[in-house]
Structure formats: C-alpha cells, structure tokens
C-alpha cells in the first residue's frame, strides 16, 4: 500500500516537474517571438477615443517580462498537468471536458500571483511610463504600494481563469477527437495547428475582458476607474460598445500564433522529457 502511494506521489511529482520545464520553455519562446504584437494590442486598448498609438519601442520591457513569464508559465503547466491527471482519474470519461476546464482554472489561479505583477509592469513599460522592469517595480511600490503591482487583479482573474480553462479545454478536446479519428498520436505540426485554433477562438471571446483588464492595470494612482463594473460602465458610456473590441485583431493574431508555438513547444518538450525519463528508468532496471 505504502509503495503504491509513494509511486503515485513520485509520478505526480515527475508530471509536475516535466510540466513546469515544458511550460517555462513554451512561455519564454512565445513571449519573445510575439512581444511586439502584444505591445501594439496594449497601446490600441489603452487609446481613448480616437487617440493615436506609438509605434516605437515595441520590444520595451521584454527582458523583465521574460523573468516573470518563465516561472509563471512553469507554475501554470506544473499545476495544470497533475491536476488534470487527478481529475481525469476521478471523473468518468464522458466528463473529460470538465476535468480540462477545472485544471485550466486551477493552473491559472496558481500562476496569477506571478502573472499579475508581471503583466502590470509589462503594460506600464509598453505605455512608456517606465524604461526598465526594476525601475517600474521600485516606483510602483513607492507610489502605490505592493497593491499597485496587483492593480486589476480581479479583472485579470475574470479574464484569465475563463481564458485558461476554455483554451486548454478546446485544445485537449480537439486533441482527443483528432486522435480518435486518425487512430494515432498527433504529429508536432498537428498539435501546433490545434493550439492555434484553440488560442484564436479563446482570444476573440475574451477580448472585452482583456480591454477592461488593460485599462485597470495601466491607470496607476490616477484611479480613473473604481473597479471592474465602473470600468465597464465608463467605457460603454464614454466610448460605446465598440471599445470593448479594441485590439481584437492583434489579440487574435497574437494568441493564435502564440497558441501554435506554445502548444507545439509544450508537447515537444514533454515528449523529450518523457523519452529521457523512460531511458533513465530502463537503465535503473538493468
């Protein structure tokens, strides 16, 4: 009995470790490749009325952002993979979508403690308010306190928990359906195409939440909005319903391409780690 529990714990730890490594690698690659599109999206969403956007400094803040994205992505996938495995064991096969949705939300909640400050700093640099991540962190804390790094935390969760849950659920369910239809494991390119599809759909659906999250995060100590509901009401009253779709084109493009790269790198890294683990276990048995 004890041996079985130890084996199960070791397997979960291995899944967590492999997921963390794969997630960190995938997150860093996506962020580096697509950062300029994200910067354009942020500036479009922040522009009020017919305001123009800056086209300079599209890579501003990338280094500091990678420092946050690596651990955040590692935590997300490191929590998602064992949570998914455990939920799939507990739930009947026809409820696998519930397992994927729930695991995605759990992973998003766990990683939010790092993702939110990273996002706040990144977007304030993208808006040319600060030049470097260390300066941004120091000045935000000095002027607004630690809570300044968590500006828009509620709206971030409201956007990202559904986003993470929906994106990973669509991806996993499409994978299952494709695998059943093709009667084989998916190739790298197929994983990437499914990832792009899942990312683009989810990105479009969550754009209104992303607009509000951006406005709340970049407002600083000015406190234009008193919260999520006030932000929504103010945008609707002053700019109209169309403002909630600001930046949808670069967002769908960014997340679609990002989904392709993220899931492609994720699956490839997981495959490489699994192969190494198998070889190591085989050597230990000799």
TrEMBL record:
Spell out the subcellular localization from the entry: Membrane; Plastid, Chloroplast membrane
Q: What keyword terms does UniProt attach to this protein?
A: Chloroplast, Membrane, Plastid, Repeat, S-adenosyl-L-methionine, Transit peptide, Transmembrane, Transmembrane helix, Transport
Q: Where are the Solcar repeats?
A: 14-86, 95-177, 190-272
Q: Which Pfam families match?
A: Mito_carr
Instruction: Offer one example of a GO biological process linked to this entry.
Output: transmembrane transport
Superkingdom of the organism of origin: Eukaryota
Gene3D superfamilies on file: Mitochondrial carrier domain
* GO cellular component assignments: chloroplast membrane
Q: Assign the protein's first listed, main location to one coarse class.
A: membrane
What residue ranges are annotated as transmembrane?
12-37, 58-77, 97-116
Per UniProt, what is the membrane topology?
Multi-pass membrane protein
**In which family does this protein belong, per the annotation?**
Belongs to the mitochondrial carrier (TC 2.A.29) family.
PANTHER family listed in its UniProt record: S-ADENOSYLMETHIONINE MITOCHONDRIAL CARRIER PROTEIN (PTHR45667)
What is the protein's given name? Uncharacterized protein
